[in-house]
Amino acid sequence: MRKLLPPLLFTIFFFVNSISAQQLTLKKGMIMDKIAIPNDSLQEHYSLYLPSTFDTAKKWPILFVFDLNGKAKQALGVYREVAENNGYILAASNNVNDSLSTAQNIIIANRMINAVKDVLPLHNNRLYASGFSNAGKFSSIIPIFIKNVEGVIAIGSGNLNAEILNAKKPFHFIGLVGEEDFRFPEMLTLEKTLNSLKFPNQLLRYDGGHKWPEKKHLNRALKILTLSAMAKGFVASDSTFIRKSYQEDIEEMEALVTNNKMLQAEDILEDMLEIYRPHQSVDALKLRRRELRKNKSYRSLRRSENAVLFKESFIKEDYFYSIDEDVSTYNFNNLGWWNYQMAELKKYQESPEIAVKKMGKRLYGYVNALTEDNIEALQAEKKMDEEGILFLWMLKTIIAPKEYQYYLNVISLSAKVGDDDTTLFYLEELLKNGYTDVDSLYALEHTTLIKIGPEYNKIIDTYLKAARYPTEE
Known about the structure:
This protein is of the alpha/beta class. The chain is built from 16 helices and ten strands. It has helices at residues 72-86, 102-119, 134-145, 184-196, 215-231, 239-258, 262-276, 283-294, 296-329, 335-349, 354-379, 386-399, 405-416, 420-432, 438-443, 454-464; strands spanning 9-16, 20-27, 31-36, 45-49, 60-66, 89-93, 122-132, 149-155, 172-178, 201-206. The strands form two sheets. The chain has an eight-stranded mixed beta sheet, sandwiched between helices. The chain is globular.
């Protein structure tokens, strides 16, 4: 007997303002971009993904994925496979943006959520939000301001303000963060805050820095939300799914122990105790956790991590106050100190001790992000502080010597104020670090006079053999 395949296309009629019906043709198993939100005065739209098994006869869980950099479709692409495997719909607004205020983004997100709810058969108790980095922070506050959003998957950031959390209206928070991410300590602190407020939460740590995690971690996050929905009675309990999930978590935990990643293994055990307690006995998990905590390697790793986190907090505080002081006082003489700090961070990153190596990578990420935040703040002012921004651009050439735009910025601004020595110094530093775009060097703003001089051209000729003007007086 021939099996009937589910249609890939189907049409939905929905009502706008309870008056006129509109028609929308949707596709399964692929990301649909720029679906318009029905409103005559707006030009907002969203991206959507429906699992290949989607049908309108049942209620579906949905994950609203947010991206504040105009890459909503790409963000859905990261989740696509795990959403398909776990039976989740995905949707993402194309209009939220980090150039807008939080309030504006909340309003836009709410319109998008309501538009999707009007079109698709969603499970009202299984609406979730997610985002990476700054969008992770944004997604964390969605349940506070938008009703019926039951949980959050915040990746790389989720810095919730305890003052706006309501212990009487908790939501499920799942944080994911790399152990080399500069926001790792913040996520650990957030976990403690949520525990004190009795919010259901898990923190999934993984290898690497400030980046999207592997799909297995995203899959586990969605699996946790499904198990939680079963525990709350939102969906029927599925014993086969529970057993399979439990076994997968046990295997992942034991693999981490084998690879001496004891702290990640303990985190999984802690999460399993909370996740599976409503479904089955967890006595075996308690015993395994007790055994793990007696392990000498585990104890050594835990002591090392606690020690470096303590040290890291002081170094970060030093960086924060130093950069603030240097910018406000135009302390260019302190660039030598910053150069020394980068050398120290390199030593940390090359340390044979795992915890120290991770600390070095986190601190580098922190000082880099701190510098960029200060640059953004100065550039946003009506009248830019040229000396302050010049210091920060110079600092960026120390922190990230291969990000060439900062050298070009320094060269241009130094030429503008007639500081030829600084202009020529940064031109040579730029070329030493591998820059080869000759055209841009002769097109830089404010360099009209110096670029026809012999010194400028001699430097270019030395490194690129491409001087356009004489190299001798």
